Amino acid sequence: MRYGSRDTLHGVDLDIPRGEVLALLGPNGAGKTTTIEILEGFRRRSGGEVSVLGCDPDRPDGDWRGRIGIVMQSWRDHPRWRVGELIEHFARYHADPRDPAEVLRLVGLEEHARQSSAQLSGGQRRRLDVALGILGRPELLFLDEPTTGFDPVARREFHQLVERLSQEEGMTVLLTTHDLAEAERLADRIAILIRGRLAACGTTAELAESIRAQAEVRWLEDGVPRSEPTADPSGFVWSLHNRLGGPIPGLEVHRPTLEDTYLRMIHQEDTQ
Ligand SMILES: Nc1ncnc2c1ncn2[C@@H]1O[C@H](COP(=O)(O)OP(=O)(O)OP(=O)(O)O)[C@@H](O)[C@H]1O
Predict the structure, then answer these.
(1) Which residues does a 6 A CB cutoff place in the pocket of ligand 1?
(2) Which of 64, 71, 114, 155 has CB 3.0 to 4.6 Å from 60, enough for a Cys bridge?
């Protein structure tokens, strides 16, 4: 993708198998929304090949749009419509929609069905976006920063919903988020986009391995905090136990989280 003379995306080679949940991560301006909008058919790419559910998004066939679900970062609709009416209205556009009452329940908006969408809070508004995205039982769901503004309970419920849709219905999900714990919880694989280039793609463990991030063992010795990075924490703890001749005070094993790995990758790219 090129805006003017500037390459915004270059060589983003990526296959997402059916049924996978893939999280696309990257700093602000890395090109995540641009990538998603190209795949959704909302932005015409400058070059390269794209196939989504077997179709080029720039030349979709008749029922293609009905097979994908979209939750964009911002969405314009009819602010005076009631939530329930809006969902019932959009359900009519789909060949085999979910029951609108079920969708309201799934996203936790049952009590707001008679409220106009303009009166919803930020997090409730986002739930409505998610409701509209899953209404048509899409095979592939695009979620662009879906939980922005969600409180912790709503976030947990949303995670359970995505897990259900993916595990029970085999829905493929492409998610962008700045919440690394969310990506770690939901995604089978994580792709990291930095300045328009795909810097890495894999499971949390594979990404940590790719930058040789090690676990760290922490303990107290004679009341003094000690720590040691190690590729074999079990072996290290075993030898420490033998050396100390018994239980290890204050023992902690810290494995690299996705956040640790991500921040190191961003730092490495910045210093290159
Ligand atoms: N219509 C446009 N014309 C010119 N440049 C654009 C346009 N849309 C996006 N860009 C630029 O392309 C780059 C990628 O933007 P994009 O919105 O895809 O990033 P992002 O990774 O989704 O960021 P964020 O995390 O902030 O949502 C940015 O530098 C942005 O300024």
Answers:
(1) 3, 8, 26, 28-34
(2) 64
